[in-house]
Write a structure and sequence with these properties.
The complex is a heterotetramer. Chain B is mainly α. Chain B has a single domain, classed as Helix Hairpins (Orthogonal Bundle), CATH 1.10.287. Helix content of chain B is 68%, strand content 0%. Chain B contains 4 helices and no strands. The N and C termini of chain B lie far apart (53 Å). The model of chain B has no long low-confidence stretch (mean pLDDT 84). The relative contact order of chain D is 0.09.
Chain lengths: 497, 124, 91, 319
């Protein structure tokens, strides 16, 4: 076996272990360790991605001395490695972009705890990406939930604690449903490993016995993961959680945590149930309807909002609706569009959160729109970045959001019966997006005479500006050279089967 | 309706318990009750799993006198999964309880809706 | 053995329902403790002694202690009666 | 003859006046319109108070949850839907269960080659008499590694939520002990007898994890309960002599790192088909079954400390 095949295992264990190590370190060292770990994991994922692209074969890695149905396994293909690389990039940029705000938002003595949680979160995301075993996935989903809850309430204002409680209640409902579905699945198939379950599922569908419990199990798992990733009717915890936590947390939560669950759902669809069997159930219609509802109602709530960070949070609800709409189409093209949207939304939403904090900082810390008037002149970098993010969200060419909308539209055209609904809702949602994002952009570029707030120059915030530039670059790269990424996604999906 | 409902009475009980826990989690206004509901829900799932491993007339999977025939022992996998699950639910319970304490010291109530109204009213 | 199992399961449901309807928080936690205890007996019946030990130590022990401390912190236990339950629990 | 005007003449023209007005140098109304200077703005205390009261009244009306008809209806609707949903869920699950393979039968899919190998080869391959321990700590060790980190993550979040600084901690301690009898003789006597027994029993469960029912987690929980009882009987002063936050941190750090490193070694050798140097020992002996015993001890230590830490955090926000 090639040495590179050890990299997924190394990256999971490295990030887990660094969590333990950070508990003994002072905050400054913990920060360095955190950055180093994220970089190292990112580099390993990049090397792994190149290796996988060159061999074109996914590989299985035993976690222990025992082969397939007896021991744990992890598995790496192009999509997994690419996702891990992307998650690391976003996480590094989010941490770097929010670092200057951390001392003001979190008590000094709790900084190292923050880095522990980030490390644990990274390891759980990696494990969710790489795992080939359902029960391992459940355990790491719990780590993900707990550390995300920690990230929400590390800034201890009343709102965040309330949001954390709501988040935990919803997440635990979701975990319960996921675990129940998993147990029924285990009872029907006798396996916990994804590939073995898939074989048994195929047998069950061929035999016709146990079909009803199988579909119920799949539905329970899907609903559980939908609740956890804040699909529209289950999003009550989201605005407060994203709106009031520290800026790095908000960026990480919105762009990575919910995406981790969605990626797990994709894995379940492809590697556990099988894409065709999943598409023959009614579940995709439910996902489709919820996705459409989320797209419209999320945007409407965002329009009503008077607080910039809550507005961005509500926009997340709409974007997650897009992703589920792609699942609901039930075609390969829809799936590719959804996965591309996962990437583009992660890149854009964290950019928006980080840019918004720059704007509110120069407006006396107020997040109300009325105080943000002209903020873009006071902090030019944040203004440009926010505009770029907004354009991407609305779907202007050159940015990543445009490509994902294009892919969604292309996918919708191929689907009978759902074409009209998805195209109309896509159009309405784009208009609504444009309303609230352009409203904000106009507001921050409006001129005012009297301003009591002082501006900020490049010299005061080098690291922050560089982060923003990287974010914008990431967005533009996704938007301009989308074809290689789409090809990679298709190749990865082919490897899933 | 299938024919195995009465054979699977243990699972049926666990489904009912699961739903009782679920209802508690949804409907109770008091956070402590919600947490108890959560625990009941988790226990119900573990009961379901343990029922899966049980085979009538066999004993616990602890090797006695070197007998390693399959006929002698029950399925060990569910027990292992439940052990892992119990640890998870204890951690989550501790976390939820500490959140409760924190909320109470701040707002002096355990009703989430009341807290939300209070927060909105303060306009923070 | 089956009859015993069914009785235990009936007890489980009774406990779960009465937790939901009990007005007093202290009572509901005590009932939850007995729920855990019944559960651990049930696990002995299901031939899983590992689970029974863990459930007895954790469900009926640690979790309940944590619940009691929380109740004390949120002043749900009357201050005039110091938590006897808490100490009884540890034994 | 030049058409140029002199400056004086120009000042009388309309254009001059217009441009001056445009640039704001001259107010055309001055001296032409009857005006009175505006009174300086003085905030009216009474009006401000009145406004505040009105605002409060409006807020009271808006957030009056008890008499809000719509809110009440919404609550009712929410309750009704929740109950309906749960009834639906019960029905769905019961129907599902009625289709599941019958309980207790040997022919179910669960009893397949996986379970068979665990039972038949478990003793030989892991060296553990207790097959469940062998399974969770050797065959499926990755899950268990994740599980111990769930506990770790929970401790960290509890620390974030409840850890107080020095002055707050002292206050919390005072208020914590206000209603409690100090040095209760009965409790202390009982504790002197019971605590050693509880802790020894816990140690037995941990060390016996691979030979019989038990293991790191349950044993650790029992030891933790013993420590909590000791704390209740003798107070924080006594326990702080041997157990402080530092001790907790170091024990947790060492156990978790040992766990991580040992398992990494085992995963690495397993995946790369290398020979592992860890001996299995004779099955049934106390020093057997490879890594399972040390791992159980590590988990037990972590769990015992964590439970004590939870309790201390809940009581007074620190050790």
């Amino acid at each position: 076996m090639n040495f590179i095949c050890n990299f997924p295992f190394f990256s999971i264990l490295l990030s887990l272990f660094s969590g333990t190590i950070c508990s003994m370190l002072p905050a400054k060292t913990a920060k360095v360790v955190n950055r180093v770990v994220i970089t190292a994991v990112g580099l390993m994922s990049a090397v792994l991605l190149l290796y996988l692209l060159s061999t074109g074969e996914p590989f299985i890695y035993w976690m222990g001395h025992f082969p397939a149905p007896w021991g744990n396994e992890i598995r790496a293909g192009v999509l997994e490695a690419g996702m891990a690389l992307f998650f690391c990039m976003i996480m590094y940029l989010s941490m770097a972009g929010g670092a200057h705000k951390l001392p003001g938002e979190v008590v000094e003595s709790k900084h190292s705890l923050y880095y522990i949680l980030v490390n644990l979160l990274l390891s759980s995301l990696l494990a969710l990406v790489y795992t080939n075993d359902m029960f391992t996935a459940y355990v790491f989903v719990e780590i993900n939930t707990i550390s995300a809850c920690g990230l929400i309430m590390i800034r201890q204002v009343g709102r965040t604690i309330e949001a954390a409680v709501r988040y935990m209640i919803m997440s635990l409902l979701g975990s319960g449903l996921l675990l129940f579905g998993l147990c029924i699945m285990y009872d029907l198939t006798g396996h916990l490993l994804m590939s073995n379950i898939k074989e048994s599922v195929r047998l069950i569908m061929a035999n016709g016995e146990y079909q009803i419990p199988l579909i119920v199990a799949v539905a329970l798992m899907c609903i559980g993961l939908c609740i956890k990733s804040a699909l529209y009717p289950f999003h009550a915890w989201l605005p407060d959680a994203y709106g009031y936590s520290t800026v790095s947390s908000a960026a990480i939560l919105s762009s990575l945590v919910s995406k981790g669950y969605i990626f797990l759902l994709i894995k379940i669809i492809y590697r556990v149930i099988g894409f065709d069997i999943f598409n023959n159930t009614r579940i995709i219609d439910v996902l489709f309807v919820f996705g459409l509802m989320g797209m419209i109602f999320g945007s409407l709530s965002a329009i009503k909002e008077k607080d910039i960070r809550r507005m961005i949070a509500f926009s997340s609800v709409a974007q997650i609706g897009y992703i589920y709409m792609g699942f609901g189409m039930g075609t390969q093209a829809g799936m590719v569009a959804s996965i591309f949207h996962i990437l583009s939304h992660a890149a854009t939403k964290s950019l928006l959160f980080i840019a918004a904090i720059g704007l509110t900082d120069v407006s006396g810390g107020s997040r109300k729109f009325i105080d943000l008037t002209g903020a873009a002149y006071r902090n030019k970098w944040a203004g440009v970045a926010f505009t770029a993010g907004s354009l991407s969200m609305v779907g202007v060419p050159l940015f990543s959001g445009f490509i994902s909308k294009l892919l969604f539209a292309q996918a919708a055209v191929q689907v009978e019966g759902k074409m009209l609904a998805s195209l109309i809702v896509l159009g309405i949602s784009t208009v609504l997006n444009a309303i609230y994002f352009m409203k904000t952009v106009l507001r921050i570029y409006a001129t005012t005479d009297e301003t009591s707030y002082t501006g900020i120059t490049f010299r005061d915030m080098k690291a922050y500006a560089v982060t923003l530039v990287f974010f914008i670059l990431l967005n533009v790269i996704l938007g301009v050279s989308s074809q290689p990424v789409v090809n990679m996604i298709e190749q990865g999906l082919a490897m899933f089967a | 309706m299938g024919q195995n409902l009465f054979a699977n009475y243990g699972e049926a009980v666990s489904a009912i318990l699961f739903c009782i826990g679920f209802t508690n989690l949804l409907l109770q206004t008091n956070l402590i009750k919600k947490i108890i509901g959560l625990n009941i829900m988790d226990s119900a799932i573990y009961l379901f799993l343990a029922e899966k491993g049980y085979i009538a007339g066999r004993v616990a999977p602890i090797v006695v006198d070197g007998v390693t025939s399959t006929e002698a022992y029950i399925n060990p996998i569910p027990s292992g999964l439940v052990l892992t699950g119990i640890v998870v639910s204890v951690s989550v319970t501790a976390l939820m309880l500490s959140l409760t304490i924190r909320l109470y010291t701040r707002y002096h109530t355990l009703d989430l809706d009341e807290i939300s109204t209070q927060l909105k009213r303060e306009g923070k | 053995m089956t009859v015993f199992q069914i009785i235990l399961m009936g007890l489980l449901i009774i406990c779960a329902v009465s937790v939901s309807f009990s007005k007093n928080l202290l009572n509901s936690i005590l009932i939850y403790m007995s729920f855990s205890l019944v559960m651990s007996m049930l696990w002995i019946c299901l031939e899983s002694p590992d689970l029974a030990i863990t459930e007895a130590a954790v469900g009926a022990g640690i979790t309940s202690v944590l619940f009691f401390v929380t109740l004390k912190k949120i002043h749900a236990i009357d201050a005039s009666e110091p938590e006897k339950e808490e100490e009884k629990e540890n034994e | 003859m030049s058409r140029k005007k002199t400056a004086e003449e120009y000042q009388k023209t309309f254009a001059f006046r217009f441009f001056r007005w445009l640039s704001g140098e001259k107010d055309p109304y001055i001296g032409k319109v009857e005006m009175r200077p505006q009174k300086e703005y003085q905030p009216d205390q009474k009006a401000a108070l009145r406004h505040e009261k009105e605002h409060d009244a409006i807020m009271d009306r808006v957030y009056d949850t008890e008499h809000n008809k719509w809110l009440y209806r919404f609550h009712r609707l929410y309750q009704a839907t929740s109950i309906l949903f749960c009834l639906f869920l019960i029905a769905l699950l019961l129907v599902t269960i009625s289709y599941l393979p019958p309980n207790g039968a040997v022919t179910r899919p669960v009893n397949n080659e996986v379970a068979v190998r665990y039972i038949e080869k478990g003793l030989e391959e892991t060296g553990a008499v207790n097959i469940v321990a062998g399974m969770i700590l050797d065959y499926r060790a990755f899950d268990t590694l994740g599980e111990s980190h769930v506990l770790f993550a929970a401790t960290i979040t509890v620390l974030i939520l409840l850890r107080l600084n020095k002055t707050e901690k002292d206050e919390a301690e005072v208020s914590d002990r206000r209603f409690e009898p100090k040095n209760d003789a009965i409790l202390q006597l009982v504790a002197t007898f019971l605590v050693p027994i509880i802790i020894i029993f816990g140690i037995y469960i941990i060390l016996n994890g691979h030979l019989g029912p038990g293991g790191g987690f349950s044993g650790g929980a029992v030891i933790g309960a013993g420590l909590v009882l000791y704390l209740n009987a003798f107070g924080f002063k006594k326990t702080e002599r041997f157990f402080t936050e530092k001790t907790y941190k170091w024990i947790c750090f060492f156990s978790l790192s040992f766990y991580c490193l040992a398992k990494s070694y085992s995963f690495y050798t397993g995946a790369n088909q290398l020979h592992s140097v860890i001996p299995k020992g004779t099955p049934g002996a106390i020093l057997s079954s490879g890594l399972i015993l040390p791992l159980n001890i590590a988990v037990g230590l972590v769990v015992a400390c964590t439970i004590y830490a939870f309790y201390a955090m809940f009581r007074k926000g620190g050790f």
